[in-house]
Amino acid sequence: MTTVDLADPPVTNPFTGTTDLPRAAEGWTQLVTPDGRLHPDVDVDRDALGRLTRDLYRGMRLARRLDDEAFALQRQGELGLWLQCRGQEAAQVGSVAAVRADDYVFPSYREHAAALWRGIGPADLLRQWRGVAHSGWDPEPYSFHIYTLVLAAQLLHATGYALGVQRDGSDTVVVTYFGDGAASEGDASEAMNIAAVNAAPMVFFCQNNQWAISTPTASQTRTPIHRRGAGFGLRSEWVDGNDVLAVYAVTSAVTEHARAGAGPAIVEATTYRMGGHSTSDDPTRYRTDDELEAWRARDPLARVEALMRAEGWSDETFLGQIQAEADELADRTRRECLALTAPDLADAFATVLSDVPQLLREERDAFVAYRGSFLD
Amino acid sequence: MTTVDLADPPVTNPFTGTTDLPRAAEGWTQLVTPDGRLHPDVDVDRDALGRLTRDLYRGMRLARRLDDEAFALQRQGELGLWLQCRGQEAAQVGSVAAVRADDYVFPSYREHAAALWRGIGPADLLRQWRGVAHSGWDPEPYSFHIYTLVLAAQLLHATGYALGVQRDGSDTVVVTYFGDGAASEGDASEAMNIAAVNAAPMVFFCQNNQWAISTPTASQTRTPIHRRGAGFGLRSEWVDGNDVLAVYAVTSAVTEHARAGAGPAIVEATTYRMGGHSTSDDPTRYRTDDELEAWRARDPLARVEALMRAEGWSDETFLGQIQAEADELADRTRRECLALTAPDLADAFATVLSDVPQLLREERDAFVAYRGSFLD
Amino acid sequence: MLTLCQALNSGLRRAMEDDDKVLLMGEDVGRLGGVFRVTDGLQKDFGEARVVDTTLAESGIIGTAIGLALRGYRPVCEIQFDGFVYPAFNQIVSQLAKMRARTGGRTALPVVVRIPVGGGIGAVEHHSESNEAYFAHTAGLRVVYCASPDDAHWMIRQAVAGDDPVIFYEPKRRYWVKGEVTPEDAGPPMPLHRARVVRPGADVTLLTYGGTVATCVAAAEAAAQEGRDIEVIDLRSISPLDVATIEESVRRTGRAVVVHEAPTFAGFGAEVVAQVTSRCFYSLEAPVERVGGFNLPYPPAKVEEEYLPDLDRILDAVDRVLAA
Amino acid sequence: MLTLCQALNSGLRRAMEDDDKVLLMGEDVGRLGGVFRVTDGLQKDFGEARVVDTTLAESGIIGTAIGLALRGYRPVCEIQFDGFVYPAFNQIVSQLAKMRARTGGRTALPVVVRIPVGGGIGAVEHHSESNEAYFAHTAGLRVVYCASPDDAHWMIRQAVAGDDPVIFYEPKRRYWVKGEVTPEDAGPPMPLHRARVVRPGADVTLLTYGGTVATCVAAAEAAAQEGRDIEVIDLRSISPLDVATIEESVRRTGRAVVVHEAPTFAGFGAEVVAQVTSRCFYSLEAPVERVGGFNLPYPPAKVEEEYLPDLDRILDAVDRVLAA
Ligand SMILES: Cc1ncc(C[n+]2csc(CCOP(=O)(O)OP(=O)(O)O)c2C)c(N)n1
Ligand SMILES: Cc1ncc(C[n+]2csc(CCOP(=O)(O)OP(=O)(O)O)c2C)c(N)n1
Ligand SMILES: [Mg+2]
Ligand SMILES: [Mg+2]
Q1: D94-138 pLDDT, tens per residue?
Q2: Rounded to a whole number, what is the distance in Å from the CA of B175 to chain A's nearest CA?
């Protein structure tokens, strides 16, 4: 019915075995310059790289389309709230594509592009923001936990899950996403420390999008966040988060490292939150147009488009196909959103515990009877 | 009446202006070898160094005597609990002596040697452990906050206090003590981060005494704790915590650095908890005699004694004087301990808030009346 | 006429003018003015040293506020949403609340913790919690709830001026409702810990606070149409609790209903029931009823109106106590 | 005959034998066997992967236990002392308690949080707290209190076998008291959430749990000397609460006293009063009395005996309900 199952066919990794990725002047790993030129030191199979790039581009483009449509739905009153991932598509798609489909992901709340890549559909993505549920999807089939809104709490869940993986003798890796702001919470530090002490098979993926609502990263931390990870004993990487190939290559390297039992890593992806914090936010109160413009010029999608053009990896057919897919996804998003209806509060009483104890039963029955009384 | 006011006369700092302190093979700063030889690169005024050494030795020796006496009092049932600082005297005295008397200290709960140095007397030190109060002394006159038993909580208090100092434009520095175990708490990381971001004038002094109750440091952290501090952007120092001169020199350097507005520091002092965690603990369940013996050979007091002997800084008179002082302190400790009597619970009702609201008043009055009824 | 939000803003402004030791601190309280704009414009006027955008760490906010208070400052901390106070729970319960008692009464910690509270604004999870029972049960804290712009303005000033830690709740769904604020020269405001009879009545007493005060008044007005004379008391302070005002009322009416948004089980309403029952036992014509949130985690926005005590559920309880 | 501590140990051992997904984790639970030795010998027998000495971070303990539970494990976490559960409050209240409801009932988190609780052992501050009211007010948690070796053994096994998060309180001052533990083949144990009539009586009902159960029994025995026939009910589970057992008793006796160590104000006793009053209103001869800790932070050890409900204060309250 739809083509959004992005992880199929599985991507092949042209970077396997590559060490020593090139760095930009800023110090971060970068494979593609902002104007779309591949770094000359990138010495991998070009065909495979082209296929990978197209796959990643498709994921980013579809994610942006879903994100835009959800934003519009919020503005039209169909969603209570939406947190855009615009600008962070490279960081998310590059990282999630680099891990195995059964590597377990603990997202924060803005990882729509990563979720979409894993096959989570629009209804599931929008449910929570329409106010009809507190979570969107069943984590199991996607190996993708529900969103966590309490900042940094999921980093400990991810760590615990990784300790379980370790006990099981499985070669699964756990990936968890968090922001530059969330990194300041005690839970984030506890998680990095516990992961390091136990050599847990996991990747802490920080999207440093420069802002935590109105608070800039410089007010949040004195050192780059990946350096903090190193302090705890994590393998530490810094990557241009708007360069999807760099993110992919770095993430696959640290994931294989963790999978081999060599311990956890932190990846700091420097990127930018192009929208407001949420649809309730007014970013003009705290950031300049100039800043926004400067980052617009580094749009991660535009960079891939330029690269594909330069390398001859895309043509009108390919772009048209994706355009059509995106249009279909937007339609589907709207359709599925409007079909999401309110739950019955009476059902909630059976979701709190594994049974419904007497007091809760009495309360539910009274509620149902009371509500019924209005129907008479 | 007594001679325990250790900070008087004030110590003069022979290390002022010294950079580049010598390091031992372990990587930590060390000025005096375990067998008491001064490192040849220590190039400071010998007289001043001798005077300083004697002062520090006196502080350590008196602290050990108080600690021993308190331990005995606990074994005799006069204290409910005691947490020995035996083995950590160099770390504590070296650091507290290196800061100004008005530099504000936030201790954990084992800093008896530091407290004694600041002039806090036995009654105040024992009160809480005899179960007659929850805290020992009025912090103001000593610039020494009460003990905090909830691990790492005081690191945030210290940080806030330092932010206040900064706002006041004062040149006070804040020093806070914590253990290798407490370092794992989220509060510890939040504090280091907030201090670093704000360039707060403070020193995080970690006594890594190898154990948190039965948990060895290796199970607590993958990297040395000072490295973690560096990750947050603190100036980071590692020192032989059983070398009182090294601790003194390192602490005075980072304190002056912080006082000059150059930002906070972490000092990790590697030392050893020679007793059990507390008088309730049975360390034979988790550590070997060999380990204890190895550290006994590194006793911080013995090291200073050997140094003073080698350098001709001590003689029988000096040692005899200190012995007498220590005897007097032990007597006083016992006397003051036995004189500590239970408070009146009825008084507690007026200590909860700045007034006594109606319900609390009713409760107190009922309690007093009820208690009075038994006297009839 | 000011909104409750503006009344808080003007109250904080006055508090900062009155005492230069007063600081505001929290996530996004500076440039942004807080996500609800309660501190709007204050950083511009008082500077970054007095209106502080903290790092994103609630334990850090309260923990450093304690240190600042020890240094002589009077920090007013904003917790961005009710559901995000829990990371600070340790610092609040073990340190902030207990410091005075631990020091035998010596050490005051004048720290105010402002918490936008409760539901009714269509928010996502963790943004609609009513967690006052936790703090009311904690000795050493004062716990108050403003429900009108006038109280918002005066209560925040009183809270900041006092020498004890205060948990200061601001019902989110009332932020944008307007009301008069009593002018400066109108005499002293009602004491911070006094309950207010917002509507006198003779038949039943409604005991409530925060977001449900307006709902109770509306219920009383609806009931008046049917000839029922309902008294509504806004408790304002739940710790300490003004038991005298409660007792006087219920002895008179003989019937009471406690209303709050929080789940009822072991909620603050239970304490009110216990106080009323023990103080007015022989005047009570019926058991005291409780109307509150159901004993579930706060539900998704689309069904929150069914979850929150509304006029009908309150009147239903009134019927029950009157029928008894 | 086993001590309560040994009975817990044997219960945990059985739980680990029965299901190899059961893990024990906490500070010093391994080599040391915990500061109270509840897990003594278990690391030796089950290995370091199943009895885990964690880092010193309570939020980390509960947060990683949640992750382990999501992976299919059944973690039993030890919080070293009651006063040190607060750093984990956020993980318990927002994550552990709510996960099932947030996922529409889909995701179970079978995590047990063991907390040595309460005073009476002469400890320093933060080591004698009774904080059950916080958790009882939190939907999504089960909150139970063992008071005898038999219950300790069987209740911990039931808690571990269940699929919901359980806050499992162990009254410290009862750790070393001995009692019989019902053997394996004696039929099914009492359900985890059932209250137990530990002493039948006709005149007054004492409702209690944890450390004060024995005190109430002693009080009842003393009262019997004076011809008063007092029923003592050990609630065992405070959430969910077995209201049926309570209701049956108080309807019969017409008088009730609630006893717990925690401060009374907004304490769990208030909920018991509210339940009793609403369910037994027309049978009540006197207002339900509460006997608890005073509304102060737990006091220094030398005066804790005056702070804790004792036999005399309980009998005093019994006198009051009988005099009414
Ligand atoms: C514990 C907690 N405190 C506060 C908040 C409110 N809040 C939601 S998002 C946010 C900023 C997060 O910034 P960052 O971690 O950088 O992630 P981003 O939104 O930039 O993706 C804040 C303060 C929260 N959700 N949880
Ligand atoms: C928040 C908290 N958790 C647990 C404890 C119990 N506890 C007291 S001391 C201690 C070990 C502390 O080790 P460390 O920080 O290394 O200090 P040391 O005792 O070695 O001086 C523990 C677990 C506590 N006091 N506070
Ligand atoms: Mg961010
Ligand atoms: Mg230690």
Answers
A1: 999 999 999 999 999 999 999 999 999 999 999 999 999 999 999
A2: 20
Q: Are residues A186 and A229 in the same domain?
A: yes
What CATH number is associated with residue A50? 3.40.50.970
Of D86, D241, D268, the CB nearest to C89: D86
pLDDT higher than threshold 90 for residue B352: yes
Which are the catalytic amino acids of C? 127
Residues C211 and C265 placed together within one structural domain of the fold? yes
Task: Give, for ligand 2, the residue of B277, B280, B286 to mutate: max count of ligand atoms closer than 8 Å to Cβ.
Answer: B277
Distances (CA, A) of D65 to B335, C85, C109, C188, C282: 49, 22, 35, 53, 50
Task: Look at residue A127 and tell me if it is in a domain.
Answer: yes
Total domain count, chain D: 2
- Contact A197/B at CB under 8 A: yes
Catalytic residue of the set D126, D127, D153, D193? D127
Q: CB neighbours (10 Å) of residue D310? A: 16
A214/C30 Cβ within 8 A: yes
**CB–CB of C122/A131 below 8 Å?**
yes
CA–centroid distance, residue B322 to ligand 4 (Å): 29
Domain with residue D112: its CATH number is 3.40.50.970
Average pLDDT, chain A: 96
Give residues whose Cβ lies within 5 Å of ion ligand 4: B 179-180, 209, 212
In-domain check, residue B269: yes
CB D2 within 8 A of CB D179: yes
Q: How far apart are CA C291 and CA B42, in angstroms?
A: 75
- Residues 87-116 in D contacting B (C-alpha not used; CB under 8 Å): 87
Identify the CA nearest to C94 among candidates C138, C50, C134, C58: C138
D175 dihedral zone (left: phi>0; alpha: psi -120 to 50; beta) = alpha
Radius of gyration of chain D (CA): 19
Q: At what angle do helices B300-311 and B244-259 cross, to 10 degrees?
A: 100
Q: Which of B205, B201, B203 is nearest to B259 (CA)?
A: B201
C19-to-C27, C42, C134, C323, D226 alpha-carbon distances in Å: 22, 14, 30, 53, 62
pLDDT tens digits for range A225-250 = 999 999 999 999 999 999 999 999 99
| ipTM reported for the complex, 2 dp | 0.98
Give the closest residue to A173 by CA, choosing from A235, A229, A121: A235
Token pair 């699929």 is found at D163
Residue in C93, C137, C270 nearest the CB of D274: C270
State percent of chain C over pLDDT 70: 100
Cα dist. B41→B25, B343, C61 in Å?
15, 55, 45
Do A159 and A300 share a domain, yes or no? yes
Residue B112 in contact with ligand 2 by CB distance below 6 A: no
Q: Is D49 on the interface with B (CB under 8 A)?
A: no
Single-letter code of the amino acid located at C227: G
C187 lies in some domain: no
How confident is the model over D239-258, as a mean pLDDT?
Answer: 98
Q: Each residue of C226-237: pLDDT tens digit?
A: 999 999 999 999
Identity (one letter) of the amino acid at C303? V
Give one DSSP letter per residue of A244-263, joined into a string: HHHHHHHHHHHHHHHHTTS-
Nearest to D124 among B128, B151, B364 (CB): B128
Domain span at residue D91 reads 2-179
Are residues D91 and A162, on separate chains, in Cβ contact within 8 Å? no
What is the extent of the structural domain holding A215?
A: 46-342
Pocket of ligand 1 (CB under 6 A): A 110, 149-151, 179-182, 209, 211-213, 273, 277; C 27, 56, 58, 80, 84, 87
CA of A180 to the centre of ligand 3 (A): 5
CB contact under 8 A, A227 and B229: no
